[in-house]
Structure formats: C-alpha cells, structure tokens
Amino acid sequence: TITVDPAARGAAIDDTMYGVFFEDINRAADGGLYAELVQNRSFEYSTADNRTYTPLTSWTVDGTAQVLNDTGRLNERNRAYLSLGAGSSVTNAGYNTGVRVEQGKKYDFSVWARAENGTTLTVGLQDADGTLATARTVAAKGGWAKYRATFTATRTSSDGRLTVASSAAAALDMVSLFPRDTYKHQSNGLRKDLAEKVAALKPGFLRFPGGCLVNTGSMQDYSEASGWQRARAYQWKDTIGPVEERATNANFWGYNQSYGLGYYEYFRFAEDVGAMPLPVVPALVTGCGQNRAVDDDALLQRHIQDTLDLIEFANGPVTSTWGRKRARMGHPEPFHLTHLGVGNEENLPVEFMARFKQFRTAIEAEYPDITVVSNSGPDDSGSTFDTAWQLNRDENVAMVDEHYYNSPQWFLQNNDRYDSYDRGGPKVFLGEYASQGNAFRNGLAEAAYMTGLERNADVVKLASYAPMFANEDYVQWSPDMVWFNNHASWNSANYEVQKLFMTNVGDRVVPSTATSTPAVSGPVSGAVGLSTWATSAAYDDVKVTGADGNTLLSDDFSGDASRWTHTGGGSWSVQDGQYVQTDEAAENTMVSAGDPAWHDYDLHVKATKRSGK
Ligand code: AHR
C-alpha cells in the first residue's frame, strides 16, 4: 500500500537537477561527437599520446611524403606538417572502418597548404567499390593559405577514404572534411545523431570536459620555455581560437585530442541543448590513481588567473579581454556560467582543500555569484564522514561533487543514502554514477536509485550518469550511456532511464510511504550469477530467498553441479559437499539457469577463498 498525502510539501526539485557529463573518453570527442571525419588531420599524433602512434597514423602515402617539424611549420602551436613530394598523394582512413558519407549530402573539405605557384591539389573520396564523389581540384600558390572544396556524395559508404594528391611538392596541414549537416548547422560543429541524443534528454546541465581527463598531467603550458610540453594537463586556453592554432595534446585515456571540440564549442553545445554549462578545471592536485601533488605555487597562481579568465570568457562583456575573444569566435552574448567545478576525484584531501580555498577566494572576490564546486575524492560510495567530506563541511563548501560506480545491488540497497545527509551542510552534485552494466536490470536499479535522489532534492541538487559516450572500437571504460561507430549510434537501457527522469522533472516531491517493497510481476530473469575475483574459490549453501521468505533457489552441493555454467574458464567440481575451483584460472562468473522468477531477493552464500588473490 502506498500512502500519499497530497497536502504535504516535500523538497522542491530544480529544473537543472538532471544533466549530462561529457568526457572525452572512449573517443567521445574526436571520432565521436566532434564531426571531423579526418583522423590525425594535423599530423601531430606522437608516442606521447599512445606508444603505437606515429605522425602518419591513419595516413597512407603513395609516392614520397614525410612529416616535418621545423621552422617551415604553419604556426608555432601546430608543430608538425606534411611535406608531400611532386606527383605523390596521401590517403586518410578516418575512424572505425573509414570516412562515412551519405548519398546526396554535402561535405566541406579544407586544407592549409604551402606550394609553388601553379601547384594543383586534387582531392578525392572513394572506397573499395570506386568513387564516392566527383574529385575536386584546388590551385595552390605561395605561402601557407587555406583552400576549400565541397563534395556531394554520390553513394553512401562507411568505408570511405579521403585522398589528397599534389602535382608539385607541397606542404600540407589541417586536412579536414566536415559534414555540412552538423547539429544545428554550427561550423566546426557536432555529429548530428549523437548531439540529438543528448538534446533529447533535455539536460539541465552539461558537465565537461572530465573526469580524469582534467586532473592529470602537468600544468606546464605549451611553449618553448616548457619544451613544447606533451601530455600536459587539460588547460582551457589551449582549446579556443582558430582550430589550426589549438595545440593538440595527449589524452589521459590513451590517444590524441585535437581540441577541435574545445571550450567555445562546449559552451555553445550547452546553450544549443538548453543546459547550464558546468566546466571543471584542474586543481593542481592529481587524482585518478596518481597520488601526488604536482606543480608549484607559481603555476598555481597562473592557473587561478586562468580560471578567472575562463569566467570572463564565458560571461564577460565584449569589451573585456576574454569576452572579446568569445565575441570574435562568434558569440558576443555571454554564456551565463553560474557553476564551476575545481578538481575531480582528488586523492589528497588536505592538499586539495588548501588549493581549493585559494581558487574559491579568488573567484568569490571577483564573481560572488559563481558557485564553486568542490569534490569528495575518488569513489565516495562508502562513508560520508571521511576526511574529504569533513573538510568540505568544515570549510562551508557550497556543493560537493561525489562519484561512484557500483553493482546494481548496491544501488538497490542504498536508495536511502541521502535521507540522512546533513540538511545544513554542502549540497551534493552527483557528477558521476552508474551501476556496472548496460542491461535492463542496471537501468532498473538506477531508476530505483534515482527515486532516492529525487526524494532528497533539497540536498542532491545535480546528478549525471557517467560516462556518456563510447565508440565501440575504442573503448577504455564500460558501461556507457550511448554507443556508436562511424555510422550508427544506439541507446542503452541506462539512457532510457535517464531520459524518463530527465524529461519528466517534477516541481516538488510529494511525500509518500509504502508498506512494503512492491512486487514486480512476471518472470523477467531466470538466472542467478555469482562472481569471484579469487583465482581459487569454494562455494557452499547457495540460497536465494524472496522478500516474502520463499526460497527461489538453493544448492548445498550434495549432488552434482550441472545447473551451474561458467564464464571465464576454470575447473570446478563438487568435493565433500562444496563446489570447488580446482585450478588457478582467471576470475570467474558462475550462473545457475533455472528457477527464480523476478523478485526482490536476498542471496546467501558461503564462499571461501582458497588461494590466489
Ligand atoms: O567516467 C569515467 C571516469 O570515472 C572519470 O574520468 C573519472 O572522474 C572517474 O573515475
């Protein structure tokens, strides 16, 4: 029985409560949301990004060509360029299976070239079955200049290749091919199907650009003084201005990031989908498994100034230094930044808080209306009374970013997590969470959990599932909300749950009580799985009982164990009434086919680690 008192007034729910978190992980940006079809367009790939990379990764050469890094370069922030021999060509393989084009659609090609007067560049699109568009020629002459051409695809293909051939020796850089049809037709824009999936969620906010992407690496800048630092931390100023002047960088997740999708594009995207922008800047204390404070105080001061400049870039008038740069990029109106995160999953709470306070003091002095968001360190699914949280409370922090990734069971069992949070303490930004999987039951567990977030909407002010995107051929992290390749994208069950909540945000919680957990009818699943991380284990007395106490499945292993099947290998047998792994195989999951109908259930099992880890 559910009892609802319509006269009672629960917490008000903010329109911004549910949002999205975009991190460039799993090639979510280049090869994903950023619509550029050419991979390694500026020949900057290097072993600093990934040890398998070369400056010609994703390119093949017919004839002679070499990548140079010398004073003949396009500009000092774009160090490498291609020197193509007379009568030679280079071909780009795009992402996944190739360059994707759709019949009848237009594609904008551009290239920066330096060549003798009278040099002809011939540009073609083809796949194994032949041409995909009529070839174009451009006449290049003199010093570095940008040349353009437009293709109309005559066939649809996901395996296309883009070829640039030169009649005479030529230097090339920033070889680019963009679909004309980007999201909202923005230039340097976003892949439409992926952006539309985000827009369909009607997100209240957009957290970006990470994640571990943000708080790792050195804050040294990209300059001669720093030795043209590769693998430096994510610094927003690297990501704005003309794309050919955005120095590419190593991505924490093991590839190169072009920064074609940079801070201007993030702000613009937030605006286009009606979301509050919520950037995260590094706090100069590394997290994400790296347990050391990096960089010195001089850098810290520079970085605090960078953060103030970021706020000016977002909100400042066109007469201000950084507001003018925003206007020059095409957006004289402000982006209405109100919240800003400092740090992500910082491992060293004391060092972090010392630096966070310096950021907050500087920001509040100039911009008292900005909410500066702190964080509670890595995985905060345990106690809320650990050092990081205590420091946040002591320092009267306005809002704390919490993260956790757990089993569906954890989400079902912790629906009441925020019921006991201090109403007078910092508000919660649940910036990253997910149950471990993309199956229906994961979505269901997350939905159940979200009712607990919503019930506590006076404390939990913002919440976003993570990560958002994964290119199926370049996965560093799973599960993810939306999956894609170079021609298709598809939603997870988790996405549908987010959409359900995000497109139906209420105004106010109506308090209710239930006499018991409502039963869900109908058999949905017929299996029980047990996972072990031990390399040798023994199980006994497995028993699954429903909430009503009925036994749904039991096995004391007095007979054979034929009902159990395994993934992950290993040799298992019944010995003396126990189910025993007799080798040192890798971690293992065993599954019982059979009895249980869908139910709220308790699992009882005796498990013994026999040896190994
Ligand atoms: O969402 C993936 C990663 O999980 C994020 O980069 C990090 O913040 C967390 O550990």
TrEMBL record:
Statement: the UniProt record of this protein carries the keyword Signal: yes
Alphabetical keyword list: Hydrolase, Signal
Enzyme class: hydrolase
This enzyme's EC code(s): 3.2.1.55
Enzymatic reactions: Hydrolysis of terminal non-reducing alpha-L-arabinofuranoside residues in alpha-L-arabinosides
Protein family: Belongs to the glycosyl hydrolase 51 family.
Listed name of the protein: non-reducing end alpha-L-arabinofuranosidase
Organism: Streptomyces phaeoluteigriseus
Native organism taxonomy: Bacteria, Bacillati, Actinomycetota, Actinomycetes, Kitasatosporales
